[in-house]
C-alpha cells in the first residue's frame, strides 16, 4: 500500500522551495503527501527582498485536531522550514497523535546554508530545532545546519575525520539516522554521509559537483530521501537517489541565467516515467 505522510514547512508562493518542491517530488516518488503549512510567504527569503510573511501558527492546532477527529494517521511527519518557535510544540504533539505505530519523525532543520542562518530566522529557531532533532528518527542537516545544531565551528569542506565527528555529535543528540548533506572530499565531487545507530552502519554517496549554488536544492534532496525512506528503501539507495536526482536538477537549471532562485526539477520528474 502506498505511504502517506504530512510535511510541515512554509508555502513560499514563488521560488521553488519548501512545499512547492516537496509536493511534486514526493508525489513523483509515489508518496501521498498532506501539508501542514507553517507560514505563507510571497517568495522564499534567500535572494529576494521585500517578501511578505504570514505566520500560520494559530491555524495549525485546529488542522491537527480536525485530522485527529477524522482518525487520519501518517507514516511520517517530515518537517522543514519553521518560522515560529511555538510550532515545535505543535510538531511534538502531532508526533504523538498523528503517526502510525511505526511512523517516523523526519526533520530537515532547514534554517541555514553557506555558513549563515536564513535572513528571517534567529537563535530561538536554532534552539527549537535542537529540541525536535533530539526526538527525531531521521535528520537531514547540511553542514551549516549541523554547525548550528552542534555548536561546532562551520567548516566549508570538512575532511573525513571531521565529517565523522560532526555526524557523531548529531547522532549523540538522539536521532537514529543522521544524513549530512554537502559533504565533499574532492574538488569535483559532492554528496552525503550518513550514520544509522540502530544498525551501527556508516554510509556515503558522492556525485559530480556542479560549481554553482542554487536555493532549494536541500528541499529537493530531502524530499527524495524522505520518499525513499518511507518507501522502505535502504540508506544507501536513498542517498544515491537523492544525490543523483538533485544533481540532475542542478544541471538542468545551469543553462538558464534567470533561475538562480531554485532548481528546475520538472523535467527530471518527467524523465522518471
Ligand atoms: O529552501 C529552504 C527555505 C524554505 N523556506 C523559506 C526559505 C528557505 C531558504 O531560503 O527562505 C521561506
What would your notes on this structure say?
This protein has 273 residues and is an alpha/beta fold. The chain has one domain: Ribokinase (UDP-N-acetylmuramoyl-L-alanine:D-glutamate ligase, 3-Layer(aba) Sandwich). It is built from nine helices and 13 strands. The strands form three sheets. The chain has an eight-stranded mixed beta sheet, with helices on both faces. Helix 1 packs parallel to helix 7 and helix 5 crosses helix 6. The longest helix has 19 residues. It is globular, with a radius of gyration of 17 Å. The two termini are 20 Å apart. It binds 3-hydroxy-5-(hydroxymethyl)-2-methylisonicotinaldehyde. 3-hydroxy-5-(hydroxymethyl)-2-methylisonicotinaldehyde (PXL) binds next to helix 7.
Could you give a quick summary of the protein structure above?
The protein is of the alpha/beta class and 273 residues long. Helices cover 39% and strands 24% of the residues.
Amino acid at each position: 500500500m502506498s505511504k502517506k505522510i504530512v510535511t510541515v514547512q512554509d508555502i513560499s508562493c514563488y521560488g521553488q522551495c519548501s512545499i512547492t518542491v516537496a509536493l511534486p517530488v514526493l508525489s513523483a516518488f509515489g508518496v501521498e503527501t498532506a501539508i501542514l503549512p507553517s507560514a505563507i510567504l510571497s517568495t522564499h527569503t534567500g535572494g529576494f527582498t521585500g517578501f511578505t510573511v504570514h505566520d500560520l501558527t494559530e491555524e495549525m492546532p485546529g488542522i491537527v485536531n480536525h485530522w485527529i477527529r477524522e482518525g487520519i494517521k501518517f507514516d511520517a511527519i517530515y518537517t522543514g522550514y519553521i518560522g515560529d518557535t511555538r510550532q515545535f510544540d505543535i510538531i511534538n504533539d502531532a508526533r504523538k497523535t498523528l503517526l502510525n505505530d511505526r511512523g517516523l519523525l523526519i526533520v530537515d532543520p532547514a534554517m541555514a546554508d553557506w555558513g549563515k542562518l536564513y535572513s528571517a530566522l534567529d537563535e530561538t529557531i536554532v534552539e527549537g530545532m535542537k529540541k525536535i532533532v533530539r526526538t527525531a528518527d531521521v535528520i537531514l542537516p547540511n553542514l551549516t545546519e549541523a554547525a548550528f545544531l552542534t555548536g561546532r565551528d562551520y567548516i566549508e569542506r570538512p575532511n573525513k575525520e571531521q565529517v565523522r565527528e560532526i555526524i557523531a555529535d548529531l547522532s549523540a543528540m538522539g536521532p537514529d539516522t543522521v544524513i549530512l548533506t554537502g559533504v565533499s572530499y574532492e574538488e569535483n565531487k559532492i554528496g552525503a554521509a550518513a550514520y544509522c545507530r540502530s544498525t551501527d552502519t556508516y554510509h556515503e554517496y558522492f556525485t559530480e559537483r556542479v560549481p554553482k549554488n542554487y536555493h532549494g536544492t536541500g528541499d529537493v534532496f530531502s524530499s527524495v530521501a524522505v520518499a525513499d525512506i518511507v518507501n522502505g528503501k535502504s540508506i544507501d539507495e536513498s542517498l544515491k537517489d537523492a544525490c543523483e536526482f538533485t544533481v540532475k536538477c542542478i544541471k538542468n537549471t545551469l543553462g538558464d541565467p534567470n533561475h538562480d532562485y531554485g532548481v528546475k526539477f520538472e523535467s527530471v520528474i518527467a524523465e522518471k516515467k
